[in-house]
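Q: Two folds, back to back.
A: First:
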Amino acid sequence: MSFSTPGDVNRFVSGYVSGRLVSNHTQKKLWYRLFVPGGTSDPIGPGLNSAGPAIFRYQTRCGTVYGHTGNVLGYTQFALSTLNGSRSATVSVDIQATQDSKGAKVLAVQQLRRVVQAAVRTATR
């Protein structure tokens, strides 16, 4: 079993979104920047979501970022990057929370979304 730190996830998302981790041939042949409006991850990403293969486009008031959200094994993460990969952020908390969480987890998701919005504002400046 291997584990990734938030720093590992951050390096991956910026490399994946920018195409640095995908060959030019693959970029031309695949999806690379095709997104379908809608689609959700859990928790829902910031802004208006559009789904692509293994990645989402989030159109926010502050600009557009790309990435993914998710939760597993007691953690919830948001990983975001600008399209060129020059700015990215990963927010990770040690609570497994979803859009349907109850009680204290609802507050955790709300606080996490505030932190993610701040990360988006910073990344899109």
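A: Second:
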Amino acid sequence: MQPACPPVSLAVLIPCYNEAATIAKVVADFTAALPGARIYVYDNRSEDQTAVLARSAGAFVRTVARRGKGNVIRQMFADIQADVFVMVDGDDTYEATDAPLMVAQLIEQGLDMVVGTRLGLHQQGAFRSGHRLGNDLLTGVVAFIFGRSFTDMLSGYRVFSRRFVKSFPALARGFETETELTVHALGLRMPVAETPTAYRSRPEASHSKLNTYRDGLRILATILLLFKEERPLLFFTLGFFGLAGLSLVLAYPIVITYLATGLVPRFPTAILSTGLMILAFLSLASGFVLDTVTRGRREFKRLIYLSIPWEARQEEPIQGPVQV
């Protein structure tokens, strides 16, 4: 039995690039699973018939010129007005029948994001070689830095409240956008949850656009950048201890010799040690200053988040493609 949801406006957002093999089925499945929801396909300049097939299946199609999933999500979140947003990939790896359960959980529990975790119900072979390990490692790094709330940080199946979508800055350009979504929720301490969802292998005619090593390094770089921006005191304190420790290691034999003989040997090393210690305290001072700035920025983001109403202005359907 499907849960009964209160009357809210629903938007299904599907970012796509070269998904002609699957997009018509994905649109049809979500149309059946969420009657009354508007299905939006954002085509990222596909080189196949993705946009044509999506429009034929009944979706409202828009085109985003800038390549990259992050750029697509930025445009989707800016354009669409709804109370609840369902975001899913267009590769037909996620089960549409799980969407009503996720929407009901978001509404009934007053959450801002529900993530469909793939780890418990995935089909054998659904994860490409190295993807599961990389996902676990990156999720663990984010949990260590920002706190653990998710087990599958890189899932592309999510349900959002209007407040989340309209307060999300969306600065990422590519697949690192899922990391940004996660850190945004953790940074503002939003009410979030995970729910198990089925995850299956791509059809044979469909090909993944994710590069295991290149995109993995981009995600890791994004995590480090967000670490610096969201937890600057901890970030620069670690820098302080690293620089101060190296300075003390270099200075130790010089100090021992000076106490024994009254002479300062290896004068360049002494200068280097002194410079490293100065840099260490500059790093610590930067951490304190930037932590104050970050607190003010976080308070401002929180006020923006609280100022956004639950109910959205109803939007007229857009006929045909719109160039962005």
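Q: And?
A: Residues 316-324 have pLDDT under 50 and may be disordered.
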